[in-house]
Amino acid sequence: MTEANRAPDARTVEAARAGDGRALDVLIGAYLPLVYNVVGRALRRSVEVDDVVQEAMFQAVRDLPQLRDPEAFRSWLVAIAMREVRRHDSRRRSAPDAAQYEADALADPGADFVDLTIAALGLSEQRLEVARATRWLDAEDRQLLSLWWLETAGHLTRSELAAAMDVSPAKAAVLVHRTKARLETARSVVRALAATPRCPELAGVCARWDGRPEGLWRKRIARHVRECPSCGGLQQDLVPAEFLLAGLALVPVAVGLRVAVTALTMKGAGSGSAALGRRAANRGVRQAAGRGHRMVHWTALSAAGKATVAGFVALAVVAGGVGIRYASASPARAADSNGTTTTTAPPTPGSSASSSPGASSPASQPATTPKPTQPSSIPSSASSSTIVNTALPVRAAFYYPWYPENFADNGSHYTPSAGDYSVDQVSTVDRQIRDMQYGGLQAGIISWWGRGRREDKRTPLLMAEAAKLGFSWSAYYEQEAYGDPSSTQIADDLVYLRKYSDQKAWLHINGLPVIFVYADGSDGCGMATRWAEANRTAHYYVVLKVFGGYRQCADQPQGWHQYVDDLDVQNGYSAVTSPGFWKYDTQTPAVPRDPGRFKQDVTTVARSGDPFQLIISYNEWGEGTAAESATAWASPSGHGVYMDILHQVFGQYPR
After folding, report:
1. Residue 266, Cα to own-chain centre: how many angstroms?
2. Cα–Cα distance measured from residue 468 to residue 366, given in angstroms and rounded to the nearest whole number
3. Angle between the 158-165 and 73-94 helix axes, to the nearest 10 degrees?
4. Most confidently modeled of 175-184, 273-282, 333-342, 615-624?
5. Closest Cα to residue 135, out of 183, 100, 188?
6. Half-sphere exposure of 351 (CA within 13 A, CB side)
7. pTM value > 0.90
8. Which label site among 295, 407, 419, 437 has the fewest CB atoms less than 10 Å from its CB?
C-alpha cells in the first residue's frame, strides 16, 4: 500500500462499537477514502458516488455494534459498500428513465470517476490508458474491477475482495482473471482508437459508431484489432495492468463529502435506533442547490462531529474550499441570496481542530490491518515515500547470497550459466533481479543468519539495486531452525532489521514489513507464541514455516508457508514448488529435474490463489534447487528453462 500510515487497530474498532466518538472519528477519517474509491470505480457517473458513499458509511456506523470480529472491520466495510453499489445499480436499471440515464452516461464520459482519477493522480501514458479502458466495461466488470484495482494497488487483500463479492477465494480468482482479460481487450481498443493517424480499416469499422464506449462496440473494435496487423502491432509494449497499478494512491476525498459523511454518521451513531438515527441524519444533511454542494446543519452534529467538521473546514479554508455551506444556529450568521441563513464557519474552527479530543486529522490516519494477528500501533521511522506495499498474492523465490564462497566450499552438481559469479558485484545482482522479474516474481527472500554475518553484509547492495529496479526483498530468518531464540532476541533482531525493512525495496504487505521464518521438524505452537510476543513491539508481517497442527495454535502469525523440495499447497496460506533437489554430497537426486513436471507444478501454484506463491529456490546451488540458468538447462532466452517456465505460466495466470 502506498500510504505508510497504519490503520486503526481492533481496539479502535471496539471503542467505536462501544460508543466512543473519538474512535468513530478515527475510523471514518481512515476508511472513507477507501470506500470512496471502491464506490467511485464501480459506478459509471461521479454524480452518483457521493450519495452511495454516504449511504454505505451511514449503514456501517449504524450496524457497527453488530460487528462480531473487530479484526474484520475493513472487509466488512468494503462488503457494505459493494452491496450499496449493487443495490444502486439495480434501482437504476429498474427505473422508468433507465435507458435515457444510461445513454446520458455514455454520452458524457467526462462526468465520471475516470476523469477524476486521471486528474487527481496525474496519470499518464499506459496508466492513463488503463483508466480510460475501464469506461468500456459492463457494470458487473466495473464492480469487480473496482476491488481488483485496489487489491493490486495494495489497498485490499484477495480475501477481502472475495468477501466483498460474496464468493470463495477460488471463485474470485476466476472472476478476476476474466475481468482482467476484458480490461486488456478494452486497453487494446483505447490504444487503437487513439492512434494517429487512425487505421483506415478501423475508421471504416467505426463509421457508424457514435463515440460512446460500450460493450458491443468494444467487441467489434477488438475483433478488428486482433485481425489487423497494424492495430495489433500497437499492442506489443503493453505492460500488464497489475504492474501499472501497484502502489497507486487512492483518489482523495473532497472536503465537502468528508463534511457530509461526518454529519450523517455522527448523528446516526448518536441516535437511539437505526430509524431514528436515519431521520435525524437526513435532517442534518440535505442536498443543496447545484451539483456537489451539501447543506450541513451545525446543530445536527455531535461534539465529536463538530470537532471533526471544524478540522475539515479549516482545511477547506486553506485550500480555498468551494461548495461547503453551514446552516442555522451558529454565530456570525448571514443570509445568502436565496434567503437561507448560513454561517461563515462553525465556531472557532482553528481552535476546535487542534484542541478538541474528538478531532482527528484524516491525512494522518492509518490505512490497513494485517490478519489474522494485528500488532498494535507501529512506531516506525519509515515515511510514506519509503513504503510501497505489494498486493497479495506475492510471488517470490528464496535467494542465497553465499557466492562465490560456496562454489568452492560446497560445490554443486550443476554449473551456473554465469559461471562462479560473485554477488558482491553490481552487475551480478542487477542480472539476478532482472531475471526474477522476468520470471514474474515480485520479491526475493534473502537467507539471513544474523547481524554482521556475510548475508547481512551483502544486504545493503541487494537493497540498493532493488530500489533502482523496482524489486522487493524480504529476509528468511534461519536461526529459528537451529535453536529456540527467545522473544527478546527475536525482537532485538527485528529492530535491527528495520535498517533495511523501513526502506522502499523491502517487501511490505498491509503497511508491515514482511519476514519469513524457517523452522525445524520439532517446532510447534511454542514457536508461534515466541514470535507473537516479539512482534507485539517489533511490528512485522510474520510468515512462519508450518508444522503439524499449526492451524490450531492460539497465537497465529500473519501468514504461514512451507519449505520443501516438491509441490506443496497449504490452502489459504502458501503454495510452493521446486525445480528439483540434488544435494552436492549425494550420488543421486532426491527429486530429479523434469521441466514438464515443474511446469505443471508452477501452474498449480499460480492457480491456487494462495497469498504466498513461492519458488524453492532461485540460487541454492548446493542443494540443487536453483531455478537460475545453468549450463544443463540453458535456453535461447538467456534465462534458462526453469525461469522461462515461470515467465510463461505466471504470465498466463497473472496475479
Report:
1. 29
2. 27
3. 40
4. 615-624
5. 183
6. 2
7. no
8. 419
